[in-house]
């Protein structure tokens, strides 16, 4: 059978508070991204590294701030790049990734290309519209003919973004579709455009393109055609078709004279040029629009222009509908379409209606119009920059120039000033600290009193006795608190030293007198008696002399100008004297006249007394004896006059203990002292026969203890061997796997420190059944894995364990210094961690008149309060 013990040590990997977010950045741009906060469930320090194998050229990682920075600048960086982040706490790590995608926009033309005509025997050039690339990349052009051809027609060439067309043969006549594709990084990712190039036949042609004509009804327009050229120098005849009712042709010019609304619309005129061999055809459009009536260019604010869409000669007449037949401010000019409006008095402000008759010689219209005379308020021409003027107390600030101002009509106006103080919150005149020059172009501020501090909203009011215009700016009068030119420094000294600490230089921006106040702690207590501040508080004298003066003192300093105060703090640390000084101070300390011997006893069997030697003190001071026993030694007591220690260990007191004894004189400041250490060693004896203590009377327990003590003494005196140290560990049953022969138990306390020491020589294993009987097992250590905290034990008595259906627990008894060939007689063994006692009965107690009682309680474990 195999016994397995499994110890699990878990450490979780650190992780982000949320997953990293993938990022996108365009070429010639920069982004930064800070990785999310990191969580480590075990509280271990975490390091973060970043690896970006495909983005080394443009991605960087800042370790202290955990910030990624991407700055792509080339076409080869376009696409997705994976960034791997590695989180490690030194034991385990985790890799998380995010994607940085570099994008690139396709360049475009700012407008579509225009179709082109390339006459035979002429050189024609055409430049594509301007290009635009969002990333500012260099734009390239890929151009070709349609029908999946990769080349341009043989009469075309391109340089940069300019095409040159030179057709010279008849087979080149026709229309070609040309594709122009703009790209920057990848020729396959482009913006595609197309336009046509039409090669005209080798007949006569116009030197310039024909121009469409726009004509209004009732109007007449003459259109002279461009010069006609024949490539062969032949005579050319011209014919045309079109709306003959109002279009006539004579000697290279068309006359267009539509007379009615029925002519409105777009009409195409086709011209045919014939040189006797070839004919060429050209077209232009005549756009007829309805004649519009004369109109005013706008309503009449002060005056208005009278206009006509056809620019005809306009005649006007005015008939007043309101007001007098003649208005003094409205007069005609030489141009009948213009009238002057000039009002000079505030009393002329108002609205005036009249009928305006407009005629262009063809038609007329009557409009009822209004002349409005109004007054414009005075205006500011400029503003203050900044519009918040900061002025310190006891200083002079000049605002020059104040905002310039004027009146649009040239009317006289006045400038007034009001202020809104943030404390009174009412508008009033300016206080005396504000003054102006004679032209009110400059303002001077001279604040002195503390009461003037605050925000003053200044209002400039322009008034032309009809309208007002206001402009606001702000004057802030400030007082700043006094300050040190550098922060006070923390100071450290020893008791019996003296320090004269001068505080840093004090300054006040407004040149106020400064008062320095010093306090101890946040509650502004007075300085301790050994700290003395100078009358003006610029230095402190520190003279600690007592042990009670040791410690760290937080000193608060307030600098005040009677209105504001600044607060600083620094620490004064007073240490005990150095070891060298203390050694000198400790010369002549009290001492015992001789040393104190250590003591070794058998727990529950032997008692002892430690007698302290007489005390001597060179200075004849009173001497105090301080004995430090501690709560772990309840079996040690001190005599009333502190000259003896009584040691009465029980069976559970095994171990080695140290007691400190301090002799100290009565010096008030630095008492001299000497420390002694006494070692107490308590031995114990163990036996594998276990007897239950439960439900025993006190008399029965005392009787058994006496029997055990007697038996132990006999064994010790006879064998005169050292006592073994015994460690006991109790394990509770978890499960039994009979097929595999493995017994799995849970344990308490941990036995990690014993794992490498277990063997059959120094460890005994017992089965404890519910019926009270124990069975000792033979076993071997099958395997030992200290990393996994796993122990596998193989038992020989597989049948014995398989029948242990009433198994309660397993006992391990590990003996570190095994010296005996036979079991040692019984003793009480006290286990501190569990607060219970075990009574081991020696073999000789299994016979005689007590043998029946002993068997009744044998091998039962019980918990008993100490």
From TrEMBL:
It comes from the Eukaryota. Residues 856-866 have a biased composition (Basic residues). It comes from Halteria grandinella. Residues 843-866 are annotated as: Disordered. This is Cadherin domain-containing protein.
């Amino acid at each position: 059978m195999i016994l397995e013990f499994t110890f699990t040590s878990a450490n979780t990997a650190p992780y982000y508070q949320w997953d990293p977010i993938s990022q996108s950045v365009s070429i010639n741009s920069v982004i930064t991204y800070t990785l999310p906060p990191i969580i480590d469930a075990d509280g271990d320090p975490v390091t973060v590294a970043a690896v970006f194998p495909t983005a080394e050229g443009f991605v960087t990682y800042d370790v202290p701030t955990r910030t990624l920075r991407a700055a792509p600048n080339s076409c080869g960086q376009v696409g997705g790049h994976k960034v791997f982040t590695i989180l490690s706490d030194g034991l385990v790590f985790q890799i998380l990734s995010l994607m940085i995608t570099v994008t690139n926009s396709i360049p475009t033309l700012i407008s579509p290309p225009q179709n082109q005509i390339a006459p035979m025997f002429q050189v024609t050039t055409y430049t594509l519209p301007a290009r635009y690339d969002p990333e500012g990349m260099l734009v390239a052009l890929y151009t070709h003919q349609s029908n999946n051809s990769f080349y341009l027609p043989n009469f075309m060439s391109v340089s940069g973004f300019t095409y040159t067309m030179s057709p010279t043969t008849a087979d080149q006549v026709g229309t070609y579709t040309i594709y122009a594709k703009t790209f920057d990084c990848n020729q396959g990712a482009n913006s595609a455009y197309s336009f046509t190039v039409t090669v005209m036949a080798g007949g006569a042609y116009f030197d310039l393109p024909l121009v469409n004509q726009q004509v209004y009804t009732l109007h007449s327009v003459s259109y002279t055609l461009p010069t006609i050229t024949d490539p062969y120098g032949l005579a050319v005849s011209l014919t045309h078709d079109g709306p003959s009712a109002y279009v006539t042709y004579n000697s290279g010019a068309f006359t267009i004279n539509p007379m009615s609304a029925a002519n409105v619309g777009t009409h195409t005129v086709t011209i045919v040029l014939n040189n006797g061999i070839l004919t060429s055809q050209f077209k232009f459009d005549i756009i007829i629009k309805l004649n519009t009536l004369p109109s005013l260019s706008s309503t009449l604010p002060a005056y208005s222009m009278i206009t006509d869409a056809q620019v005809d000669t306009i005649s006007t007449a005015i008939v007043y509908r309101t007001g007098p037949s003649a208005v003094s401010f409205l007069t005609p000019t030489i141009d009948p379409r213009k009238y002057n409006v000039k009002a000079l008095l505030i009393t002329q402000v108002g609205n005036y209606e009249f009928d305006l008759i407009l005629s262009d010689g063809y038609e007329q219209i009557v409009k009822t119009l209004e002349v409005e005379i109004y007054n414009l308020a005075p205006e500011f021409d400029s503003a203050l920059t900044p519009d918040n003027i900061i002025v310190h107390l006891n200083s002079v600030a000049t605002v020059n120039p104040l905002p310039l101002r004027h009146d649009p009509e040239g009317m006289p106006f006045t400038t007034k000033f009001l202020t809104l103080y943030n404390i009174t919150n009412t508008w009033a005149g300016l206080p005396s600290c504000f003054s102006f020059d004679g032209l009110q172009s400059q303002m001077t501020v001279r604040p002195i009193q503390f009461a003037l501090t605050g925000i003053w909203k200044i209002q400039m009011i322009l008034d032309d006795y009809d309208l007002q215009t206001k402009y606001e700016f702000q004057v802030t009068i400030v007082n700043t608190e006094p300050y040190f030119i550098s922060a006070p420094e923390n100071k450290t000294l020893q008791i019996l030293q003296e320090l004269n600490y001068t505080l840093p230089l004090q300054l006040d921006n407004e040149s106020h007198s400064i008062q320095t106040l010093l306090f101890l702690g946040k509650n502004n207590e007075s300085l301790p008696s050994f700290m003395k501040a100078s009358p003006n508080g610029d230095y402190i004298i520190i003279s600690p002399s007592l042990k009670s003066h040791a410690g760290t003192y937080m000193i608060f300093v307030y600098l005040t100008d009677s209105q504001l105060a600044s607060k600083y703090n620094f620490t004064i640390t007073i240490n005990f004297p150095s070891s060298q000084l203390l050694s000198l101070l400790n010369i002549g300390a009290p001492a015992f006249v001789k040393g104190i011997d250590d003591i070794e006893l058998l727990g529950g069997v032997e008692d002892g007394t430690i007698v302290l030697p007489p005390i001597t003190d060179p200075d004849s001071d009173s001497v105090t004896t301080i004995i430090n026993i501690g709560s772990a030694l309840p079996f040690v007591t001190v005599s009333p006059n502190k000259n003896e220690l009584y040691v009465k260990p029980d069976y559970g007191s095994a171990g080695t203990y140290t007691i400190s004894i301090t002799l100290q004189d009565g010096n008030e400041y630095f008492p001299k002292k000497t420390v002694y250490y006494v070692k107490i060693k308590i031995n114990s004896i163990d036996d594998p026969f276990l007897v239950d203590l439960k439900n025993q009377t006190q008399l029965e327990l005392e009787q058994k203890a006496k029997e055990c003590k007697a038996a132990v003494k006999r064994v010790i005196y006879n064998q005169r061997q050292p006592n073994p140290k015994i460690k006991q560990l109790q394990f509770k049953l978890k499960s039994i796997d009979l097929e595999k022969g493995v017994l799995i138990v849970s344990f308490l306390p941990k036995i990690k420190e014993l794992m490498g020491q277990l063997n059959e020589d120094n460890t005994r294993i017992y089965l404890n059944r519910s019926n009270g009987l124990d069975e000792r097992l033979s076993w071997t250590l099958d395997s030992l894995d200290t990393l996994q905290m796993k122990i596998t034990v193989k038992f020989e008595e597989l049948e014995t364990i398989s029948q242990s259906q009433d198994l309660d627990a397993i006992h391990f008894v590990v003996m570190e210094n095994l010296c005996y060939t036979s079991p040692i007689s019984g003793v009480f063994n006290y286990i501190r961690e569990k607060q219970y006692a075990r009574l081991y009965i020696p073999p000789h107690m299994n016979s005689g008149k007590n043998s029946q009682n002993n068997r009744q309680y044998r091998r039962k474990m019980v918990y008993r309060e100490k």
